[in-house]
Amino acid sequence: MRRGLFAVLLVFSMALAGCLGPSTASWGTDENQLHVEYTEDGSSIGDITVTSGLGSERITLDSEIGETIGCGIDDTKSEPTMELSASQSAPISFSGYLAASHFYSSHSSTGGANGLDYGVATSVAIERMTIEEANNVVEGDGSRIDVKNWDMPLNPETGAGSVDLDEIDRESDSQWYILGLIPSTENIHNGLTALDEWHQSVTIYGFLLSPGENSTGMTAGYFNSQNPEQDCSLEIGTQNRESVYVFVTGIELDGATVSTNGESDDEWVHGDVPLLGRAGYILFFLAFGIGGGVGAFILSKMFVMQGTKSTMKSLLGKAGMDSIKQVKKDVKSAKESGLVSPSQRQEEARKQASKKKPNDTKKSYDEPELAGFDLDSVLSSGPSMGSTTEFGGQGSSVVETIESQEMERDISEQSSVIPSSPMQSSFPPRQSSSSVTSNQPPRQQREHYTSSPPVMKKSAGPPKKKTVRKRKTSAPREEVAEEEPKQPSRNNFDEPEEEFSDFSF
């Protein structure tokens, strides 16, 4: 995944080729900007004023700059020779192999910047050679400089590399230009970003500057009796190093030019690409980069699908492929008719269940409901009238209400109205057993269906023998209602006498 993302970012970064540049000072008269003004008399340049906001405060450099020094032929001598003087209007050239460069967005006095250093926008280190020799340098074989610190435009601190600029002296095999570039126009200032690409051939055209009124004792970097070559290039002294300020009026690259007005036929533009140009490169990238990538993806997908189909056909055969096609048709027709698959139904059911509120769910009981009987309301409500009586023992939770007591009282009153006829037993009494007769019918224990069943106790003695006593039935009286419940017969319990002799049980 990371490799794929890196590849995508790499491809898109190609669209920004030539559009990214170094951080440089902007051109203008506001804070943190650089601006240069000069007067031009015919072909000569004079009265240069540099306004710089690259320091801690904005300063104007005019009295620090004297006359501009150009190159030309000295006609005053018997044999005309090339000379550098303020009266010459031709620019001086600095040609060679660009080994290093540094761009300034600000200058610091703590780093050693002083005077005309605040007007420098870019510093370069160029190994002096002809343009033909610089173009023939193989990539990787040229001089390599390790820059450690370049706060001082004319005194870079370098370290390990093929060349150490701090060690250049008269015994060195190479000659070097260390130039502090002051742009003459805004187009030159913008064109300095072309020097961000190291290891290329370059020629810089410009004028040297003589010290001004306020530059006493600060002549480093100014014109100091240097001599030109026959092609108006600056001659390097015996120390094999020349460090000077240059008022830049033009830059020549391999196949491109930076001019003061930006109207050259082969004018270099930031973001320009050789041969294709900016617009041509963008169109090329869109047409062949993105379009080719999309086309390659579609083509590879077609190849994969075709290989998959051939493999399935060899494994399943013609009948299997026909069955798969028929299944696809059936699924499509089912979807068009509105049928839903089981997985979709389950998903819809889960969504509906999640939407239900917890309060809407009710507890379901497994027991069947009794008609007209609500167990919850009975358990939660209090007694209907007065107090209640509990009976049935610890294992029972039956409650006798007032209504049930009144019902029993009515039944007992009705039974008392009917005269009871003496009942004669057809069997003589037995002396060995005692007969216990209850005057009132025994009250049967009524229990709720939820109560626990009564515990059966084992009899301590032999089984009891019931004695049946007959009684005459009397004719029913008219006052007694037909719906009067039948009174249970009295039971006689015959038990051995020894059963009542010991009440320990």
Could you describe the 3D structure shown?
- The chain is an alpha+beta fold.
- Among the domains are: 14-272, no CATH class; 274-313.
- The protein is built from eight helices and 19 strands.
- The protein has helices at residues 2-13, 131-135, 186-191, 277-337, 342-355, 375-380, 402-417, 498-501; strands at residues 26-27, 33-41, 44-52, 59-61, 65-74, 81-85, 92-103, 122-128, 147-149, 157-158, 176-183, 200-211, 241-253, 256-258, 389-391, 398-400, 433-437, 465-467, 492-496.
- The strands form five sheets. Strands 7-8-11-13-12 form a five-stranded mixed beta barrel. The protein has a four-stranded mixed beta sheet with strand order 1-2-3-4, with no helix packed on it. It has a three-stranded antiparallel beta sheet with strand order 17-19-18.
- The chain is elongated, with a radius of gyration of 60 Å.
- The protein starts with a helix and ends with a helix.
- Residues 363-367, 420-427, 429-439, 447-452, 457-461 and 472-482 have low confidence and may be disordered.
Q: In total, how many beta strands?
A: 19
Number of helices: 8
Shape estimate: elongated
- Rounded mean pLDDT is 76
DSSP strand (E) fraction?
A: 15-25%
- Quaternary form: single chain
Please provide the ordered H/E string of secondary-structure elements.
Answer: HEEEEEEEEHEEEHEEEHHHEEHEEEH
Q: Which spans have pLDDT < 50 for at least 5 consecutive residues? A: 363-367, 420-427, 429-439, 447-452, 457-461, 472-482
Order of strands, widest sheet? 7-8-11-13-12
Taking all Cα atoms into account, the compactness measure Rg is: 60 Å
- The end-to-end span amounts to 91 Å
The major beta sheet can be summarized as: 5 strands, mixed, barrel
- Helix coverage percent: 10-25%
Content-based structural category = alpha+beta
